[in-house]
Design a protein that fits this description.
This protein is an alpha+beta fold and 93 residues long. The protein is built from three helices and two strands.
């Protein structure tokens, strides 16, 4: 973020997705690769846990793609794209 996070707490809060987890949050599909070398899967797990607390499973879904890394082609398989489009159809149609 360009500085020590302890020196920029407002910027850190704005960049933290947990800041935006609230009861009126829009539907959200989280997908994360288990072997992502850039963003630890635990970050998405923490977000999913927070969403479970504030909205329940009614408006969010969380998938871990076991063999996927960051920006992995496994996110673009026909099977996964069907999954994504089904989620979008459920909430946007």
């Amino acid at each position: 973020m360009g500085a020590k996070i302890t020196d920029i707490p407002d910027e850190v809060r704005r960049a933290n997705p947990l800041t935006y987890a609230h009861a009126d949050a829009p539907p959200l599909l989280i997908q994360h690769g288990r072997i992502d070398p850039l963003v630890p899967v635990q970050q998405s797990m923490i977000l999913a846990q927070k969403l479970e607390e504030v909205v329940g499973h009614a408006r969010f879904e969380f998938d871990i793609l076991e063999d996927a890394g960051h920006g992995d082609p496994l996110f673009e398989t026909d099977e996964n794209l069907d999954r994504v489009f089904q989620f979008l159809d459920r909430y946007l149609k």
